[in-house]
Amino acid sequence: MMKKNFLWGAAMCATQSEGGYLEGGKGLTLADLFPSISEGRWDAIFNIEKAMNTKYQYYPSHNAIDFYHRYPEDIKLLAELGINFLRTSINWARIFPNGDDAEPNEEGLAFYDRLFAECAKYGISPVVTLNHFDTPLALIHKGGWKNKKVIDYFVTYCETVFRRYKDVVKYWITFNEINMVLGIPAVGGLIDPNKEENILEAKFQAAHNQLVSGALATKIGHEINPDFEIGCMIGAGKNYAYTCNPEDVWEAYQADQNEFSLVDVQAKGKYSDYMLSYFRRNEIDLKATDEEMDILRKYTSDFVALSYYSTRLVSSDKKDKEKTGGNISGTLKNPYLEANEWGWQIDPTGFRITLNELYDRYDQPLFIVENGFAVRESPDENNYLEDDYRIAYFRSHIKAMQDAMSDGVDIIGYTTWGTIDIVSASSGEMSKRYGLVYVDLDDKGQGTGDRFKKKSFDWYKEVVRSNGENL
């Protein structure tokens, strides 16, 4: 039995949906430099200087699905689902185009005024991510998130939007999948790995600065509106040991510790003893002050948000073992699991395990703000798409979530990811479709951009209406 105040939602983010990449006074973000997968997107992600000096034929984020202009029809369509909330992000570079501007960009704020007002027309509450891989590109010249000055810039931005939307937004998330700064530091921390003598230290320095800025944002947010709920977020997924060999089990344990390392600080107020030892062993100096450590201790998160797509498989000896894809990083292939075309493995039981582990570890309410299944698909001649495979994925995962709640896990709400088809963050493809709504655009941005409901749209509508009873 679901609690009556459980929240059901839809989700997207600015860089993957808005487009309008230079409209309304917006500055550039790293996402605006990345080409499609066919032009070397991953090479660009791991070589920022090359990306900044290369002219590509197509940039997926420049127009994305044109949510910047089409948001009224999209919000109206999503409202048909009966959802309580829309998880989206405010693009920092729309508000402070260079990151360190003296004054915010009023045109950028006006866009989010209109967007949130449109949501309110339909009784939809925004759940806002403050940084969803959209740190203003200009800050790369200051060292990105390695530079402690960026803490002040981020806090200024947060205070600006907190004050602007103090009566509009209740739920805030400081950083999307904060562990991404360790997995892909260019995307998560605006760090060019090719320019770092000690990339390990650079990653953790950037992460530490994000932790401090998130804690300060939490402090200021609660001062502005004590009713704010300000959470952290992890790209989650249980790490399984490849075998019961103790070496594999230890490898999986270490993978979990590293995955949890940053959210440990956000939710518990301190680095774990394991990570402090890790820093010493690897001679990592975070340049952390006593004042910063006190800030981390005092201003912890109100909830833990998470994305979940699949679990991971870990071995102490990766030789001759088949690999597959996954969120944040690849993994070893699990012979007991099926996978989609990109190798992301389907594991609803792993979802239940992950939810239980996170709740046991943090004892804070969880908020599932991303869950989804990507497929290459095309509608029929009537613009209809029978995506029974997606329904099966969601049915099994929502059931696993309900099982976790029966286990005692406190969950605020749930949303599918990319509820309307959006550009993939990892590949830049439109054809990597997650949505309940089909968008008529291809991997080169060609098409009408028109929206069409898939079969899963009406299925999810009934799930929301019945509060999860009818799966």
Describe the structure in your own words.
By secondary structure, this protein is of the alpha/beta class. The chain has a single domain (about 5-465), classed as Glycosidases (TIM Barrel), CATH 3.20.20. It is about 40% helix and about 15% strand. It contains 17 helices and 14 strands. Helix 8 links the parallel strand 3 and strand 4 (about 170-175). Helix 5 runs parallel beside helix 7 and helix 15 (about 350-360) runs parallel beside helix 16. The longest helix is centred in the middle third of the chain and has 26 residues, at about 200-225. It is globular, with a radius of gyration of 21 Å. It starts with 6 loop residues before the first strand and ends in a 6-residue tail after the last helix.
What is the gist of this entry?
The chain is an alpha/beta fold. It has a single domain (7-465), classed as Glycosidases (TIM Barrel, Alpha-Beta Barrel). It has helices at residues 14-17, 41-45, 48-52, 60-63, 67-79, 92-95, 106-121, 149-164, 180-183, 185-189, 199-224, 246-268, 273-281, 290-298, 348-362, 388-406, 455-465, and strands spanning 7-11, 85-89, 125-131, 171-175, 229-236, 239-241, 304-308, 312-314, 323-324, 331-332, 366-371, 411-415, 437-439, 451-453.
